[in-house]
Structure formats: C-alpha cells, structure tokens
Amino acid sequence: MRAQFVLSEIGVGLRRNLTMTFAVIVSVALSLALFGASLLMSEQVDSMKGYWYDKVNVSIFLCNKNDKETSPNCEKGAVTDDQKKEIRSELERMNLVETVHFESSEEAFKHYKEEFGDSPLASSLTADQMQESFRVKLKDPEQYKVISSAFAARPGVQEVQDQKAVLEPLFNLLSGMNFAALGVMALMLVVALLLIVNTVRVSAFSRRRETGIMRLVGASSFYIQMPFIMEAAIAGLIGAVFACVLLVTGQQVLVNGWLADHISVIDFIGWDAVISKLPLVLAIGLLMPALAAFFALRKYLKV
After folding, report:
1. Largest Cα–Cα separation, the chain
2. Structure-model confidence comparison of residues 94 and 7, the more confident one
3. CA gap 285, 234 in Å, rounded
4. What single DSSP character describes residue 65?
5. For residue 222, which phi and psi values (nearest 5 degrees)?
6. Where are the beta strands (DSSP E) in 17-120?
7. Alpha-carbon distance values, 256 to 46, 62, 99, 121, 273 (Å)
8. What angle do CA 227, 280, 245 make, to 5 degrees?
9. What is the pTM of this model?
C-alpha cells in the first residue's frame, strides 16, 4: 500500500506541474548534453594532440642562392656541403633527436607539386628555388627550443621551424570552445536546479493539506519527502535520456555522417567514447534533481 500511495502521489505531482516539469526536463537535457559534449570534445582534443604531436617535426631550412637578399641569416650565401655535414653530424649526436631526414630541393619541389600543383604559383617555380632542409623528429616535442637555440644562428641555416607551433593555435581554439561549452553548461545547470527547486516547492505547497495529514498520522519525514524527490528524479532522468539521445544523434549525424567525410586528416573518437559517457550522464540526471529536491524540502516542509 505504501508503494502504491507513493506512486500515486508522484503521478499527481507530475500532472499538476506539467509545464514546470517539462521546463525541468528540457533544461536538464540541454545542460547534460552540453556536459557530455564537453567531455567528448576534451577527449577529442587530447586524442588529436597525441596523434599530431607524435608526427610533427622540427624543420631546419637551409639557405639557397635565392635567399641571400631576402633573408638576413643568409647574407653569406647558400649553405655549403661542409655545413650540411656538420649540422647532420651534430643532430645525430643529440640524445633528444630520434631521427634525422635530409630533404633535398628536388624532393621539396616534388612534395610542393603534389600538395599545391593547382596553384598558379606552382608553374613558375623550379626545383633550385626550393629550400633544402633537415626534418628532425624529437623524442620529446617539448624540447624544440634546444634545437632552435643550437641551430637558428648557424651559418647556412635560414630558419628553424617547429611544426608543433603551427598546430598549437588550433588546439588552443578547440580548448577555448570546450571551456565556453562548459560555461554554458554550468549556466544551464544552475537554471535547471532553480527550476527543480521551484517545481518541488510549488508541488509541496499545492499538497500542503495532504502532507499535514501525513504528519498528524505519524508519517516519517523521509516518507513525506519521497514523492517529491521521486518526481524530481523522474523528470531529471527523462531529461538525461534526451541528453543521451542528443549525444548519440550528434555522433551519428554530425561526426560520422559529415565531419568524418569532409575532414579526413582527423581521427575522430568512436562510439566507445560516446557510450562510456552515457552512464555518467544518466547518473547525474537522476541524482542531481533528487538531491536538489531533498535539500529544498528539508527547509520548506520543516519535517
């Protein structure tokens, strides 16, 4: 009988406050969807960093005959064979260097034609205008400054370029977007909590006669609070289910259905990452409204 009474009270409460319950469901759904998306975006950025930072090189571009007038570092003319041997030898002796690859001007020209063959500038370039370079893979990409300080001012070196620095602004942008999503999620979460508290209080006020009778017959505080807590928990759980639907739909439609086809250079996170976040979203959606209702009722009902 007690369980039946609690369930009937839950149904009554949800029907009486249908509009506010719907608002709670929408707020919880949006806030938890943003929360799950933020977790997935953070995991995606970490995955991209691990993938690309492992592939980036430090490029030591060497002077050629065309750089004498355009680059202050190449005032003495093109790099000599002895200078190239000295640079390679010193790089190979460094413990922080994993591999060293020398790219000739012919190889550089070939790669340029492969990547930018449709460019109008490609037809006017020749192989001797391309720079020779050493492509240096480091054991720790964070040690780029060691290479830069050792070779940037070396005779025959036009520039030392860290490819990691080219990717850093992209990752900073993605991280910034992630923090922005977390900020919006926090705001939506506050709105959802306020709606939950107000909904519970309105429901308690509309049923103050029933709760008064329950007090008189000796019902425990927890028994009186249970229908209100369950109402909030059910609304939150429904919102969490909608949030999971939004996350799954986003993965299928946005990531797998569009981004993966248009951005092939990024290895997007898969379904395992999405599915692993769903239980957390459901748990938060169930517990957060229940706890909010519990603490709101302790003060409001004074039981």
Report:
1. 100
2. 94
3. 9
4. G
5. -65, -40
6. 58-62, 97-103
7. 19, 42, 35, 36, 13
8. 85
9. 0.65
| Cβ 108 vs Cβ 130: under 8 Å | yes
Q: 220 is written with which tokens?
A: 């425990």
What the block records as the tokens of 176 is: 């910034």
Instruction: Kindly report, residue by residue over 183-216, the tens digit of the pLDDT.
Output: 877 887 788 788 878 777 777 666 666 666 666 6
Give the 3-state DSSP-derived string for 206-218, with helices as H, strands as E and coil as C.
HCHHHHHHHHHCC
Torsion angle of the four alpha carbons 148, 149, 152, 155, in this order, in degrees rounded to the nearest 10: -140
Mean pLDDT across the stretch 154-168?
Answer: 78
Share of the chain above pLDDT 90, in %: 8
- How many helical (H) and strand (E) elements, i.e. helices and strands, does the chain have? 10, 4
Q: Are 134 and 101 in contact (CB under 8 A)?
A: yes
pLDDT of residue 247: 92
Amino acid at 217: V
Residue 140 has what pLDDT?
Answer: 77
97-103 β-sheet, strand order: 97-103, 133-138, 58-62, 157-162
- For residues 156 and 170, give the distance between their C-alpha atoms in angstroms, rounded to a whole number: 32
**How many angstroms separate the CA atoms of 82 and 78, rounded?**
12
The SS3 call for residue 161 is strand
The lowest-confidence range among 61-70, 221-230, 281-290 is: 221-230
Distance, in Å, from the CA atom of 23 to the CA atom of 18, rounded to the nearest integer, reads 9
3-state SS, residue 257: helix
Average pLDDT of the residues of the chain:
78
Specify which residues 99 forms β-bridges with.
Answer: 137
% of the chain exceeding 70 in pLDDT? 76
* pLDDT per position as a tens digit, 135-149: 888 887 777 788 888
What is the rounded CA–CA span in Å between residue 12 and residue 67?
82
CB 45, CB 172: distance < 8 Å: no
